[in-house]
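Note to self: keep these together.
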Amino acid sequence: MSVPLRTEHLQERIREIRAYVERIQRYTALSDEAFFADERNLYTVEHLLLRCIEAAASICSHIMARIARSAPSSYVDCFEGLREAGVIDDEVAAQLMRAARFRNMLVHHYWNVDERQVLQIARRHAEDFIRFTDQIVYWQKQREREE
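Structure:
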């Protein structure tokens, strides 16, 4: 028997991710010229991406602690664990694992991060976090039906 999920915790992180993605999309809708004209845009998007990754990792860690009764050693391992457990699909897991590696670059090697790469990642992959939350909601509903 698995330990119950704290659904309020999951729901709050999901709401946060969706709000962060909405904000990211507002910034990334700017032209490159407009985006880079104000350095605060880049810093804001970087920060919002970090918040998305942290919130997704919080969801991941919570679920893994409940279903696998283990603490993954890294964010990458955590998303791989969700994939192995059938909580998220291969594609979303791969994208979130890449996001976790990108987070490590932003946090630990920020001087090596290309500003244009940040914008491109935000434009191409912010939606990955929405797909992640959709799959978490779907998995949670399936789990509730089975209990």
